[in-house]
Amino acid sequence: MSPPVCSCAEQVRKLTQQASVMRREIKNLRQQMDGAIRAHKKQMSSLQSMLTDCKHEDKLQSVSKSPSEIKQLLEQGRIQTVPIGYISSCFAVKNGTPRQPTICSSSRASLKIEPSVFNNPEHSLVGLEQYSHIWIIFLFHKNGQMNYKAKVKPPRLNGQRVGVYSTRSPHRPNALGLTLAKLEGITGDTLHLSGIDIIAGTPVLDIKPYIPDYDSPKTRRDDTNSEYRQTSPFTDSQMPQVMDLDEEPNISGTSSEPSSVLRVCPAGPSDFSQSERSGSSDVTDVLAEVKNYVKQQQLFTESPKDKQTDSPERNSLSTNHLSSSSLKFGCEDYSTIAAWVRAPPVSNLDVRFTANAEKELKEFVSCNSTDRTKPKFQFLKGPEEAVAAIKGILSADPRSVYRRTRCQDRLFFFTLDTADITCWFGDGFAEVVRVKPMQS
Ligand SMILES: C[S@@+](CC[C@H](N)C(=O)[O-])C[C@H]1O[C@@H](n2cnc3c(N)ncnc32)[C@H](O)[C@@H]1O
């Protein structure tokens, strides 16, 4: 039996009513959701601005601190540092990064001054273009855990320990690094650098111009108008000669010298340096020159007052100083360095390329090239510069002492600019076997 027509119509009416109620509810829910999304977005943007404020607070030593608290923290040496920029460099990782900037002069980098530090970052660089080199003070941000020890084993000392402060080890309290880089140029807020030993992403805390007159004791001596020159007890012909720090020193570990200290001393006005230049090889001549040289060195140890008195005390004092300090050696204003830095027990390696590696490297094009079909360097100017950089890096033996002694036959991988490089080490040499575009 079919239901009565009126009850059907009733049902349709009820259903229509329910549908419209549901529609209204859906509309309400939608409105509520829209409201929630709007509120969420608002919350997000206020969180974001709080974050920006926090960064500002970092910069300003936190606004929550009073000026006197900030002053106190500064006096205690507990300031909060703010990176002035981050290095973009041709070294992506620590492996294969030169241990010092001089190892690889073509290693390039750039540093953009953060707009959060100065409103007009480029203003902070005005005048810096007049300098050829700058000091970069940075954080060894990839040290991993901040652990450090009082004694370390520099790779160039091949396992021997020395105090951390007599080395350039990255693992030190405060993890601060110091590099002297060549300033190639400045464009706006960006410095273009070369000769760096810093990996990409490194936070830079400060930069300063390199001023040889202030920063290099050797160069101060170069200045003929220097105070030293004016007050020197020497006559012009007795003035110590300036020695280029890149040259081999005249004296290394003589019997009167502590064996671990190598003095970079003036050659002196003796014939010694003269005939060395003229290439005399006669043994007696050489001995005479050595004697003469020693005499000159003694002369340098004497103050004018000393010269007048020839007491036994004077002689013994002089000898003591020769073995314990540079003061009486006549080099008091000259720099001295640890012997192992100049003549490390680890020797430099020959670097060679397999024919295949050479071919692969030649595929790369300069950072300025418009060729899109070939792998392109980001910093280097072409394969020649890359060869020089690779030779610099490998000849200094970039392996840790552990790798050098325990994993001699393992392949060594490193990245230079946009190239992944594979090499191996043999007795006295390193051979590059593969150069591939970096895997991104
Ligand atoms: C021996 S340190 C010397 C650095 C600087 N010239 C100095 O004397 O303070 C250079 C080495 O530090 C490592 N290095 C460079 N940048 C780094 C960073 N941001 N974090 C950790 N290690 C870094 C690389 O392995 C590089 O070979």
TrEMBL record:
NCBIfam families: tRNA_TsaA. Belongs to the tRNA methyltransferase O family. It holds the Pfam family TrmO_N. The keyword Transit peptide does not apply. GO terms for biological process: methylation; tRNA processing. Residues 81-219 form the TsaA-like domain. Keywords: Coiled coil, Methyltransferase, S-adenosyl-L-methionine, Transferase, tRNA processing. It catalyses: N(6)-L-threonylcarbamoyladenosine(37) in tRNA + S-adenosyl-L-methionine = N(6)-methyl,N(6)-L-threonylcarbamoyladenosine(37) in tRNA + S-adenosyl-L-homocysteine + H(+). This is tRNA (adenine(37)-N6)-methyltransferase. Residues 215-226, 303-313 have a biased composition (Basic and acidic residues). It comes from the Eukaryota. Residues 210-283, 297-323 are annotated as: Disordered. Residues 12-39 form a coiled coil. GO terms for molecular function: methyltransferase activity. Residues 227-240, 271-283 have a biased composition (Polar residues).
